[in-house]
Amino acid sequence: MSEKILIIGANGQIGTELVTTLRGIHGAEQVIASDINNPAYAIRHSGPFEFANVLDKDNLHHLFQKHQPTQVYLLAAILSATGEQKPKLAWDLNMNGLLHVLDLAVEFNVAKVFWPSSIAVFGPNSPKQNTPQYCVMDPNTVYGFSKLAGERWCEYYHAKYGLDVRSIRYPGIISWKAAPGGGTTDYAIHIFHEALKTGTYESFLSANTMLPMMYMDDAIRATISLMDAPAENISIRSSYNLAGISFTPEQLAEKVKEHMPEFTITYADNDPRQAIADSWPQSIDDSTAQRDWNWQPEYDINALADTMLKNLKNTLVL
Ligand code: AKB
Questions:
Q1: Catalytic residue (one of 143, 170, 187, 267)
Q2: Disulfide-capable partner of 97 in 54, 71, 90, 287 (CB 3.0 to 4.6 Å)?
Q3: Nearest to 221 by CA among 255, 165, 175
Q4: Bridge partners of 44?
């Protein structure tokens, strides 16, 4: 059966790359990109696009009716740092957007739904090292507890309505094609842009703040592997822990210096994102993803830094 895939929130950092990859696999016409904003160039010119506001259920209903998707990826979200500035909007969008899509997926018999969760579901009392799949979870950001509540809803829709919903707790995702927006891990992208533009960077996180991260290609491969796995292999219907690489701003700066010896880094005091980072894990135990769908990351910190610098050098207007 040929798939019809609807991607909601297609203009974002992950959406942009997922649309391109899925169009490559299934054919451009089979992948409908949608977003509340005007489409990015790469999306507009490579296949169908629809405007969609996840908070407008009638608008979404129309989209589901028109395209009868077999798979839906819901990527529209407000991330951790922006969520602290707009807490009610973050809750509304992250929660009601998900509930609208879950309801419509049941109504229209969508075969599979993907929804991203995050390492932000963990909190100050979760174990920091090798954070397990199941442990104390006391997130203290609106983004974090909206994702944790969303995970509960996903598991509930699977148990109650048999909806085949799948999810990953993404670490910080590093990429060069589309800009990230409003995250706590975004320093690890800004550093490359600023290194190339100005030769220096002020990190909003302190030198020793270790966080779980992943290069975009690994994140896209993980997402598609999870979506392609046989349903009987999927033992987690809340969201899978997923690990790539853990590093600090200082360690990443050292990697930049290996390519650009004159690069310098400084560290801001009192940025509100520091408290968010301090409440999150430093490394993740993803043994269940390894067991259930053979997950293995490919990018280490060297490959990540090489790829970021090489590609940004060719695309940034300096
Ligand atoms: C953020 O920093 O908010 C995101 C995330 C880890 O979910 N990148």
A1: 143
A2: 54
A3: 175
A4: none
Structure tokens at 272: 């509100």
φ/ψ of 164, rounded to 5, equals: -85, 80
Pick from 14, 75, 85, 118 the residue to mutate for probing ligand 1's pocket: most ligand atoms within 8 Å of its CB: 118
CA-nearest of 314, 310, 281, 273 to 85 is: 273
Predicted confidence (pLDDT) per residue in 214-255, tens digit: 999 999 999 999 999 999 999 999 999 999 999 999 999 999
- Statement: residue 1 has pLDDT above 80: no
pTM for this model (two decimals): 0.97
Given a contact cutoff of 8 angstroms between Cβ atoms, the answer to whether 122 and 137 are in contact is: yes
The atom number, within ligand 1, closest to the CA of 143 reads: 3
Q: State pLDDT tens for residues 280-305.
A: 999 999 999 999 999 999 999 999 99
Helix (H, G, I), strand (E, B) or coil at 266: strand
Residue type, 314: N
What does DSSP assign to residue 284? Answer: B
Instruction: Verify whether residue 299 is a known catalytic residue.
Output: no
Q: ∠ at Cα 250 (248, 253), nearest 5°?
A: 110
Mean pLDDT of the chain: 97
Distances (CA, A) of 4 to 253, 275, 281: 42, 41, 36
The pLDDT of residue 34 is 97
pLDDT at res. 318: 64
Q: Are 172 and 178 in contact (CB under 8 A)?
A: no
Write phi, then psi, for 296 (nearest 5 degrees).
-145, 125
What is the position in ligand 1's atom list of the atom closest to the CA of 185?
Answer: 2
Q: What is the pLDDT of residues 69-79, one digit of tens each?
A: 999 999 999 99
- Give the span between the Cα atoms of 29 and 39, in whole angstroms: 16
